[in-house]
């Protein structure tokens, strides 16, 4: 049974400006494992990766029903790629199954999270 769904759009230019301004956005949004992946990429891919994880965590918090804040923070959700390159939610506060999709264009990243209980 689907418990919640969340969708988010994030502009890549907005994330790029924050990175160029020297804001500590990667450290705020990414878990240590995600930060290790981020650090291995070049500048363009770093923007895409960070924007994707930011948007995915926003989508997760919407599916959870709280938004980013006290109940679900950026560090509470971890998204890592599996061996095939598919993003998977590897750490989360929800006790069921979490499904995620991340898609990019040159300007936007779109994410969707579905939270499910029961058979997966």
From TrEMBL:
<dbReference type="InterPro" id="IPR008278">
    <property type="entry name" value="4-PPantetheinyl_Trfase_dom"/>
</dbReference>
<dbReference type="InterPro" id="IPR037143">
    <property type="entry name" value="4-PPantetheinyl_Trfase_dom_sf"/>
</dbReference>
<feature type="binding site">
    <location>
        <position position="58"/>
    </location>
    <ligand>
        <name>Mg(2+)</name>
    </ligand>
</feature>
<dbReference type="InterPro" id="IPR002582">
    <property type="entry name" value="ACPS"/>
</dbReference>
<keyword id="KW-0444">Lipid biosynthesis</keyword>
<keyword id="KW-0275">Fatty acid biosynthesis</keyword>
<keyword id="KW-0443">Lipid metabolism</keyword>
<feature type="domain" description="4'-phosphopantetheinyl transferase">
    <location>
        <begin position="5"/>
        <end position="111"/>
    </location>
</feature>
<dbReference type="InterPro" id="IPR004568">
    <property type="entry name" value="Ppantetheine-prot_Trfase_dom"/>
</dbReference>
<dbReference type="Pfam" id="PF01648">
    <property type="entry name" value="ACPS"/>
</dbReference>
<protein>
    <recommendedName>
        <fullName>Holo-[acyl-carrier-protein] synthase</fullName>
        <ecNumber>2.7.8.7</ecNumber>
    </recommendedName>
</protein>
<comment type="similarity">
    <text>Belongs to the P-Pant transferase superfamily. AcpS family.</text>
</comment>
<dbReference type="GO" id="GO:0008897">
    <property type="term" value="F:holo-[acyl-carrier-protein] synthase activity"/>
</dbReference>
<keyword id="KW-0479">Metal-binding</keyword>
<comment type="function">
    <text>Transfers the 4'-phosphopantetheine moiety from coenzyme A to a Ser of acyl-carrier-protein.</text>
</comment>
<keyword id="KW-0276">Fatty acid metabolism</keyword>
<feature type="binding site">
    <location>
        <position position="8"/>
    </location>
    <ligand>
        <name>Mg(2+)</name>
    </ligand>
</feature>
<keyword id="KW-0808">Transferase</keyword>
<keyword id="KW-0963">Cytoplasm</keyword>
<keyword id="KW-0460">Magnesium</keyword>
